[in-house]
Amino acid sequence: MSHKWPETRKVESPERFTAWLSRAIAPSSDTSLIYRGLPNSQWHLQPGLDRKEPKGGSHCDRLPIKDRTIQEFYQQASRFLGHIERHRMAESDATRMMVMQHFGAPTRLLDWTYSPAVAAYFASISHSDLDGTIWWIDAKAVEDYCTANWEKWGIERYPKELGGQVMLDAYIFKPDVPEFVTLLDHGFRIPRAQAQRAMFTLGSRLGVDHDTVLANPRTDGKRGRITIKADMKNHVLNSLELMGIDAVSLQYPGADKVGLSMAPKP
Hints:
Layout: E1 7-11, H1 14-24, E2 33-38, H2 48-52, H3 59-77, H4 83-89, H5 93-102, E3 109-113, H6 116-124, E4 132-138, H7 139-147, H8 150-153, E5 181-184, H9 191-195, E6 198-203, H10 210-214, E7 223-228, H11 233-242, H12 254-262
Parallel strand pairs: 1-7
Antiparallel strand pairs: 2-4, 3-6, 4-7, 5-6
Helix pairs in contact: 6-11
């Protein structure tokens, strides 16, 4: 576990969970915070593509892995995608990865949510014998950190008349790009993304642990972890169900995965 992300709360009783969640979702709460729930407190903030592929080799040597994964997903999943998803898969690598991420494919992205309740769900839904963790960080602090460094990193912007946005697609897939982690809003309305109030962080290089890079001076005091003890997970899920937060409302394919795992092999 990264010691640079302090434990700001430990959920050891129903009362502590209720108190934390009530404060986190109150109208006066900090709306710039984003959350990521993980069911194992020992896991780092590591994208799926890095978990799938070994870390050996340089960033440059591993770049073809990204291209191969995108191509494989599109070839196998295109017939199952809706109009919006197919349209986005025809755009940039960044939008392709956003579509893939929402369907569980390994990418360079990490899912986050603006909802602390959604993060609590994903921190509790599996690994019932292990403590879970809700990671949280101030998205504005991440944005400020990147804004202060784009020029130093050599990342250019589009002209103001074109929106002035950072030209990420032109840089994040280059072999010599500097190491950083930035925010990436999905920018389109996939129903699952809306249900989960989702957004992403994106590492500029393969092999980047997001928790390590995001632990910088700009985010000091603006990031942390909330531990959900293993014996509290069932209570957390029951409480969230009463709020209407469950696999169906989040469009989380838990039952599908169970059914498919039980199905006979061809």
